[in-house]
Amino acid sequence: MADGDVAVVVVTYNAAGYVERCLESVRGHETVVVDNGSSDGTPALVRERFPEVTVIEQENRGMGGGNNAGMRVAGGRYWLLLNSDAWVEGEALEALARFADAKPRAAVVGPRLLNPDGTLQRSVRGEPTLWRLATEYLFLRKLAPRTDLFNAFYGGGFAHDAPRRVESLYGAALLVRRQAADEVGLFDESFFMFSEETDWLHRFRAAGWEVWFTPAAEVVHLGGASHGGTLYSENLRGILRFMAKHRGRREAERARLLLLWSLRLRSLLFRGERGRSYRDGARFLARLDVASLTA
Fold first, then answer.
1. H helices within 207-248, ranges in order?
2. pLDDT class for 229, splitting at 50, 70, 90?
3. Cβ of 49: how many Cβ atoms within 10 Å?
4. What pLDDT does residue 4 have?
5. CA distances from 81 to 85, 167, 190 (A)
6. 227-263 burial, b for 16+ CB within 10 Å, e for fewer?
7. pLDDT digits (tens, 9 = 90+) for 4-54
8. 269 FRET partner, CA 20 to 30 A, in 69, 73, 112, 121?
9. Which pLDDT band, with edges at 50, 70 and 90, does 147 fall under?
10. CA distances for 126 relative to 104, 129, 132, 272, 295, angstroms
11. For residues 7 and 29, is the Cβ–Cβ distance under 8 A?
12. CA nearest to 87, candidates 196, 167, 172, 207
């Protein structure tokens, strides 16, 4: 891989507690940090510890808006979009670029994601459909969690041990071909957070590009740290926005009702913080106007 082939884009929001490990893991590569309005001194920390990094400060425009700002100024034939709570292991970045070079129609390549304890973090995903939402939110995947029929939403039938063309990937670490992004466009910023990568990868595939997973590269991801784990309603909004955009408003309304009654059921079954999250999610869905998602 030639110098300058891959530029790294990292979006931060109050990431002072973990961004250093992220940036240290890609040191030596052009890196752009886009800060979405941190109040914990993240931009100052990055400038002090990593003076070679380009820092962009802006109001919080979500993950898609942050990554877009970084990609617009980054060089390279490829961009590595890396969550601030993730870090690259060894030569993973180079392995991703080599894999993409061998797959000229690959718009996006995702690595094998690991939890900090070394266990697998499932990153191969399926796009949301009514059936897939039902298998997840009505616990049907518990019947056969390792099958595509009952757990395609989270790649339950795939061991993440071999290269594979996929529908979608979890967005903690994505290598993106600039040429493909120039053709298809960047993230749709109406997705503030969650499902923005699902929408983008759908658009790549609809334009004839490919999305790949490879286990030859590994990235460790804390999971939830970059957004604090507090945006459950935003997750639901992202799913329904995707459904409305790509399946139509009627299908999105069916999905809203399915999710609403599923969360009401869950709120009766679970106590504590989990139960409160489900109740909050149900209240959010009860008020949501699906038409507003595509207005």
1. 232-247
2. very low
3. 12
4. 67
5. 12, 18, 19
6. beeeebbbebbbbbbbbbbbbebebbbbbbebbbebb
7. 699 999 999 999 999 999 999 999 999 999 999 999 999 999 999 999 999
8. 121
9. confident
10. 23, 9, 8, 30, 26
11. yes
12. 172
Q: What is the sign, positive or negative, of the torsion defined by CA atoms of 98, 104, 107, 111?
A: negative
Instruction: Supply 251's token pair.
Output: 């299908």
* Residue the block writes with tokens 């590994």: 218
pLDDT of residue 228: 42
User: Which tokens sit at 34?
Assistant: 């886009």
Over residues 77-123, the pLDDT tens digits come to 999 999 999 999 999 999 999 999 999 999 999 999 999 999 999 99
- Both tokens of 114, joined, read 């690991």
- Check whether 3 has a pLDDT greater than 60: no
Burial of 77 (0-12, 13-18, 19+ CB in 10 A): middle
- The closest alpha carbon to 18, from 239, 230, 228, belongs to 228
Which residue is listed with tokens 């109740």?
279
Angle at 15 between CA 14 and CA 16, to 5 degrees: 100
Percent helix, strand, coil in the chain, to 5, is 45, 20, 35
